[in-house]
Amino acid sequence: MNEFYDSLSENERAFVPGVALKYGRTVNSYYQRLLNAKAASNRPYYVGLSSDMGTFEQVTKRVVLVADTVLLSEHGVGAMHELGMREWTSTWPASNTYGADVPDEEETQTWRYGMVTEDLAKLGQRLLDAEPLLRSGAVWYGPVFVEGSRGRFGSVGEPTQAGPLPSFSDRSIDFVVEHGRAVDLTGTKPLASRVVRPILEINLPFIDGLSLSDFAHVTSEEFDSYRQHRDFMRSQLLELDDALEAVDSQVALERIALAIRDELNAATAEMSSAARSRALSRSGAVLGTTSAVLAAVRPEALQGALATSATIAAGATGLWPTIQAFADIKPTHTHGKWHYVWALQKKAAR
């Protein structure tokens, strides 16, 4: 998807319905290959979901926490938007009852192709908000494509109403999301079902209060920590027993949610303690205070500053005590699974 996003000019990005249409034209040329790759994939956590546009953001943020790749599509009733036209010529031998040579008969047909979406502007904005996720391959959006004659689409450039259409064949869509719940269509990916279905029901305030755009950027920037947290989420959800009754299932889900919140609170307290420690705060100056925060959260961010300041040590006295003090603190939390969640929570709190 990098080629698609790289091709968007600033003016094109400002017109969000046009973003959706350009995405449709771009993907249409190779989306069969993408679907074939999805069908042939033996990865248990490559999942396809179909949901309405109203839950696009919620489904994306939650399922990304447990899936390697998410194919997200729409379903239901929407308008058909023309993307382009195709022409081809059919040729067959002319009928000749007199034995004379006559040229073959030809007929040129024009077919229009388009895509169905509930809201073209919302789709365009979602594609922009989720850009880092699509660039990384964590998510891709699969349009519902349709083809037909001119009559089926109505006047050129005018969207027409489509009836209920399936998003894809069953080989591509594993779940349909209705009312916040995922309905398993295929039954062929038990591991995916065990993590995708409950993740939509767990109370996770650190993502619910975060925009899709911020979520996508944090996930991209903290990708190593994100992968560790994703593995943790899978391991926790796989412990749930499919045979549990509904009430017990809710209890088990709440236990997982509590475990996540407890770990998050512990990680947040640890980082805050490091930032407030006497050793770090001794630097005093604004430069030192900023460095303390960087050291507590992103120690690698200081490398550039040190490289440029090493030759002027006298002017960098606020940095050195900070680095020296932080060297005694094990920075494992800055790369662990909870650093990703902490970064999401901090972004949501802004």
Spatial strand arrangement across the major sheet: 5-2-1-8-9
Strand percentage: 15-25%
What is the rounded Rg?
27 Å
Uncertain stretches: 278-291, 307-333
- How many β-strands, per DSSP? 9
Largest sheet: 5 strands, mixed
Classify the secondary structure makeup into a structural class: alpha/beta
Percent range of helical residues: 40-55%
Average pLDDT confidence is 74
Shape field? elongated
The first-to-last residue Cα distance is 30 Å
The topology string of helices and strands comes to HHHHEHEEEHHEEHEEEHHHHHHHHHH
| Tally of alpha and pi helices | 18
Could you characterize the architecture of this molecule?
The chain is an alpha/beta fold and 350 residues long. 50% of the residues lie in helices and 16% in strands. The chain contains 18 helices and nine strands. The strands form two sheets. A five-stranded mixed β-sheet has the order 5-2-1-8-9. The chain has a four-stranded antiparallel β-sheet with strand order 6-4-3-7. Helix 3 crosses helix 6, helix 11 (212-221) runs antiparallel to helix 18 (337-348) and helix 13 runs antiparallel to helix 15. The longest helix has 31 residues, at 246-276. The chain is elongated and about 90 Å long.
